[in-house]
Each structure stands twice: as structure tokens, then as C-alpha cells.
């Protein structure tokens, strides 16, 4: 069944009203009509099966049939802080990271980020990234929509980092043989419900100064397996291995 | 240090001769010269640091300086059998799957594959995919080059499947709640050195008939976390979680 994230203001006692782009998707793309059913996701993470009771060009009115008991969200809140990469790699990271259960994304301007986003470009890019995250959430049947934060500077990233119980940096030199504990050593310390931040550099990695500042803010340097991963693969490894640890171990 | 996979015929007792496209890469792209060093990978998985001793337009002659003690290969041989997906998704799967340690890839024509590869298209596509796998291996500092098999039919895939000790199918209905054991249940049965095949359907998943035939050939149906993954994300989840299990657990 097709799934839509519906903002809180569109929920009434027994009805959910669909507005905006989703009206076009429901009526034109999916060609649904009165009596057809969809799943509506509430921003609080709950979801329900709804039946379409009326539609016009501006809105689709649905009636709530049953609330669902679902549990497809990662039991930890994972934030991927990604140094701006080249080209459309950030879109790939957002899409795949959403499928793999990330709770939020912070794109930040790293010292070695080659692209610079001015205000106009950032606003356009961010709205595209948020659309990608919404679509990927719907397709992967998630009940929570990951947050895509505004573009952040490195000092801002450090300043907000103490809101996470666990702060990690994926660091190439750790893969290259700098002494490091294995990932499970750090995963075992994470409790369900806690917030985890994983920082990933752009193509050129982090600068010496950034590494120094991470140390001062008590980030933990981790490796993601023994092979050198491209920047856009690192987030996916981190999320898949956290999913394995929390969701696929007996 | 830049890394190159060199075919067996180019190895002599103390020398490695680079020919083909890599000559251009070494001399023009990397602008290396006599006395510069590179890493040469032998097809047997060993690698050595080599110094360039001579070069012309057709070849680069290098002398072996030291053999390396490296262990960056996944301790199990993982084959990703991928139902042909749309667009350039197979390239993404090959590139990321190589970074994540896959030993080989089998692209196969699934019942619901929308693209059909005729002979001419297949030959062009395969040589491109093999180039992608070689470059991704070099970039991720692997010592083995994954094999990209020729395009295969579904019956051929089944026929060769008994060469693997472990045969898995990523099956959407398992994610959707069909009773299934967790991944770790199956991973625990895999011993280092064994061969594992993971079959992944195209966008529309496997047909009922394909599922039936997998059952007859005693494939195990697995889920890859509780969220529905796109076809190109499934291989990456499987490889990352196997890497975590075999390489990142204390």
C-alpha cells in the first residue's frame, strides 16, 4: 500500500487530509479513487490505513480505518554529519541513508570540501534533498521522516555535538592501521534510545586541524572495515552495521 | 601509494611490467617518473611496492622493492547474484560492492528485469563493469580483483549454485513479516574460507516461479533489516553486515 507522510496540521480526529504534491501523486500517478486505501504517517511515528472518501484538484480527504502496529525504525537515533562531497553524491547518501534508517543528516562545509554552497544554491539543494528523504522514507516503509538539517559550518557542528551520547569520526588513517578497537567495542556501549553522531569527511578526508578539533571535543575515531571506502560508502557501512547490531542479532 | 592490478604474464622474477591503460594512468594522469613508487597487485592476492625503473609510451618497467603483508580481504568469498536492474544501478552495485569486499558478481536476467541485454550491449556493458570493479579495487586498496561473470540466465544461476556452501535470497516478503530468523542465525554458520552466494532481485523483486525454484534448490530466504531496501541497496547491506560480523567484532 502506498505510504505518505502527512504534516500534523492535516490530521483531524478521524480524518487525514492530503494536500500539496501528494494530491497529484495519489490522483494522477497512482490513479487512485474514492474507496482506495493508503497508509498515512503521522510525524510522531505512528501510521494508519486510510480510505479515500473524497478528492478534488487541491486535496484528498481520507478516513482513518485502523492504526498500525509497526516497528521498522532503528532503535538508536543516528545522525550522519557529512562533509560536502562532489557532484550528486550527497543525494545518494541521503537516499540510501534514509533506507538504512538514519534519523537525521547534517551536511557541513569541511576544509577539504571542493564545492561551496552559496545561500541560493543551498536553499535549492536542501529542498531537493528533503524531497529525496521523504520519497525514500515512503518507499522503504519507514514511519519517521529523517531530518535534513541546514548546511552547517565545522565550528557549528562541534558546538552542537554534545547533544549526542556517542560521537564518532570515520577516519581513513584508522583503516590504514592506526591502532584502533573494532567497531563492536563501541557499538556495545550504545543503548537503545540514545543519539549517535557519525562524522564523515569529503573526498579528501579531514584536515589535520579538523582532526585536532574532533579530539578536543572527545570524538572517537573509528574504522569501517579494513578497506578504504569512498566518502559516499562510509555512511552506508555505518548504518548497515548498526542495523545488523541492533536489529539482526539474535 | 597508487595501486595497480597486473596480469600474471607481466610478472618476472624481480620486475613487474605495466602495459595497457595503466601506462597512460601512471605517466599522464599521475605524472609519475623513474624512481617513483607504486603498489602492484598479483592476481594471487599478494602485493608489493615497486619502483619505476624505465618507461615509454607502451610500458612502464618497475622493480620489486618489498612484498607487503596485508590482510584487507573479507575472510569469506561473497558472490552477489544481481537480477538486472534499470539504468546505471548495476554500476553503483559493482563499485560499492567492490569497496565492501565482494569476491564476484553474477548479473542475471530475472523474470522481472525490465532491461534486456542483447549480445552487443552485454559485451560493452561487461567491459565497462569490469573496469569499474578494477578501479574500485585499486581505490579501496584491495589485493584481490572481484570477478564480474558474464550475464547469466536464471536456470544457469541455479545450476551453478551448488558450488556455494551458503545460498541466500534477499526476499522482500521476509522483511514484510514472513516468519524468518535474524541474519546472525545464518552468519554464525559461515566459516572463514567458505563461499556465500546472495541473490537479489531487480526492482520488481522475484516472480513466484523464481521463488519456487529457489526453494527447490534449497536457498535460504533472508531479510536485510526491517526496512524495505531498493534493489541496489540490498547488496551493500549484505556486504557491510558480513564485514561487520567477520572483521569488526571483537
UniProtKB/TrEMBL annotation, chains A, B:
<feature type="domain" description="Ribosomal RNA small subunit methyltransferase E PUA-like">
    <location>
        <begin position="18"/>
        <end position="64"/>
    </location>
</feature>
<dbReference type="InterPro" id="IPR006700">
    <property type="entry name" value="RsmE"/>
</dbReference>
<dbReference type="InterPro" id="IPR015947">
    <property type="entry name" value="PUA-like_sf"/>
</dbReference>
<keyword id="KW-0963">Cytoplasm</keyword>
<dbReference type="InterPro" id="IPR046886">
    <property type="entry name" value="RsmE_MTase_dom"/>
</dbReference>
<keyword id="KW-0808">Transferase</keyword>
<dbReference type="InterPro" id="IPR029026">
    <property type="entry name" value="tRNA_m1G_MTases_N"/>
</dbReference>
<keyword id="KW-0949">S-adenosyl-L-methionine</keyword>
<comment type="similarity">
    <text>Belongs to the RNA methyltransferase RsmE family.</text>
</comment>
<dbReference type="Pfam" id="PF04452">
    <property type="entry name" value="Methyltrans_RNA"/>
</dbReference>
<dbReference type="InterPro" id="IPR046887">
    <property type="entry name" value="RsmE_PUA-like"/>
</dbReference>
<dbReference type="GO" id="GO:0005737">
    <property type="term" value="C:cytoplasm"/>
</dbReference>
<feature type="domain" description="Ribosomal RNA small subunit methyltransferase E methyltransferase">
    <location>
        <begin position="73"/>
        <end position="242"/>
    </location>
</feature>
<protein>
    <recommendedName>
        <fullName>Ribosomal RNA small subunit methyltransferase E</fullName>
        <ecNumber>2.1.1.193</ecNumber>
    </recommendedName>
</protein>
<keyword id="KW-0489">Methyltransferase</keyword>
<comment type="function">
    <text>Specifically methylates the N3 position of the uracil ring of uridine 1498 (m3U1498) in 16S rRNA. Acts on the fully assembled 30S ribosomal subunit.</text>
</comment>
<dbReference type="GO" id="GO:0070042">
    <property type="term" value="F:rRNA (uridine-N3-)-methyltransferase activity"/>
</dbReference>
<keyword id="KW-0698">rRNA processing</keyword>
<dbReference type="GO" id="GO:0070475">
    <property type="term" value="P:rRNA base methylation"/>
</dbReference>
<dbReference type="Pfam" id="PF20260">
    <property type="entry name" value="PUA_4"/>
</dbReference>
<dbReference type="InterPro" id="IPR029028">
    <property type="entry name" value="Alpha/beta_knot_MTases"/>
</dbReference>
